[in-house]
Amino acid sequence: MTSEALLSARGLRVVIDGLHILHGVDLDVAPTGVTALLGRNGAGKTTTVKAVMGLVPRTGDIRFAGRDVGRLPTHAVVRQGIGYAPEDRGVFAGLTVAENLRLAERDADPAYPFVYELFPELRSRGRQLAGTLSGGQQQMLAIGRTLLNANRLIVADEPTKGLAPKIVAEVADVLARVAERVPVLLVEQNLALVRRVAGTCTVLADGRTAHQGDAAELLADEEAARRLLGVGGGHPVAASSIATAAPAVAAASAATATATATKEAP
Ligand SMILES: Nc1ncnc2c1ncn2[C@@H]1O[C@H](COP(=O)(O)OP(=O)(O)O)[C@@H](O)[C@H]1O
Ligand SMILES: [Mg+2]
Questions:
Q1: Contact (CB, 8 A) for 175 and 186
Q2: How many domains does the chain have?
Q3: pLDDT tens, position by position, 138-170
Q4: Global model pTM greater than 0.70
């Protein structure tokens, strides 16, 4: 997988305030389609994508499109062509939708036609304050922003978090369409969505890579899914409704949410 990967990280480590958050993450993002980054709450998914973006101090090897980006500052990583939709969406609540989009412009010729084709509401709601959008609309804005520029990879951190089932299905459709044009690294707890859109996956546990492989194969393996993700691979994950799996994962992972970072030895 490594040789063809668009993005690959080896031995990624992150220490924050003496806390070892990541202690050996390996990650390969396929050059096409959706690659999922999975793991229970607190496993280190958000920290991993922040490490790739240079938003937290990191060591280890990170290569993107054949280039060593592991020591680049965030602005230089972004300019390599990585669009980041963060976990909290990060829209400017007090600015309009159109202003949020304009602030994200990096290229001389931003791809408004593509963004408005995918998200017609971003055009019709251009004058609306982003803070008054629904959660799903804010998520569309966060993803739309990353598509304005000619990015070579989109990183979306839990885009369906807190969204109603119907909206989760809409986000899934959008992600599938985005991935036809640009590869996506998708951090996601909703395993039914992962099963639907992802090709390969990396699973983190306690700040380390615990598994890499085909997403559908993992989710079909009840024992492995339970061990790695805390859910049965059979029933909730296999359910046809995309909505069904999310609460199961959330409940299963809540108990482990706090105990993953270990204090640095003196
Ligand atoms: N800035 C930080 N300072 C201290 N601990 C942190 C910080 N960021 C994350 N952590 C801890 O690191 C672990 C991994 O967090 P995170 O990457 O957000 O996990 P995930 O996205 O998989 O839920 C958690 O235990 C979290 O509390
Ligand atoms: Mg997270």
A1: yes
A2: 1
A3: 999 999 999 999 999 999 999 999 999 999 999
A4: yes
CATH code of 242's domain: 3.40.50.300
* Å from CA of 102 to ligand 1 middle: 31
Q: Domain limits at 187?
A: 2-263
Query: Residue whose CA is closest, atom 25 of ligand 1?
Result: 42
Give the pLDDT confidence of 26-38 residue by residue, as tens digits: 999 999 999 999 9
Cα 129 to averaged position of ligand 2 atoms, centre (Å): 26
Q: Residue 105 corresponds to which tokens in the numbers above?
A: 């412009």
Q: Does residue 161 line the site of ligand 1, with CB under 6 A?
A: no
Distance of alpha carbon 99 from alpha carbon 232, whole angstroms: 44
Q: Where are the alpha helices (DSSP H) in 148-190?
A: 165-181
**How would you classify the pairing of strands 67-68 and 59-64?**
antiparallel
Which amino acid does the sequence have at 202?
Answer: T
Could you tell me what percent of the chain has a pLDDT over 90?
82
